Amino acid sequence: MSRAFVKEDGNDLAPLPDLPIPDHPNYVTPRGLAALQTRLRDTQSRLATLRARPDRLDKLPEAAAERDIRYLEARLRSAQVIDPARQPLTAVAFGLRVTVAEGSGQTATYEITGEDEADAPLGRIAPHSPLARALMGAEPGDTVTWRRPTGPLELEILKIEPPDDPQP
């Protein structure tokens, strides 16, 4: 068999490119900070397990874990914790939940959270999203316009409240 296509030294796997880090501030809630710390510990543990494998021919999972650790460490270094409990409930702000009504009368509740804890099915939106930008600073009774790709939507602010589970 020809050795032309066989790599003799399997140790030269270049690190995977870093995950992109957004330019804007990294606001996090205490819950979001705890989640990032947990993700980092879990990823470090996964990397240790990968490195302990007897058969380490495939180094890609290790490289992916190392990349994820670099990302999580960068996110933790740049984290600016904002405690929702310290936010007044007079206007929509980071960390708070806001209930809105569309013109049709349908209601929805959103919580403005850090980017890394945003989760649309849970109603958690990032502060730099178009919806969050439309809501920020609005007070109960105000109407805001959410500029969506499908067209603008008018939303009436019904109530502002602290999150259900603000702490980790």
TrEMBL record:
Domain of life, source organism: Bacteria
Gene Ontology biological process: DNA-templated transcription elongation; regulation of DNA-templated transcription elongation
Annotated region (Disordered), positions in chain: 1-25
Pfam families found in the cross-reference section: GreA_GreB
Entry keywords, A to Z: Elongation factor, Protein biosynthesis
UniProt keyword Mitochondrion present: no
Identification of the protein by name: Transcription elongation factor, GreA/GreB family
Species whose genome carries this gene: Gemmobacter aquatilis
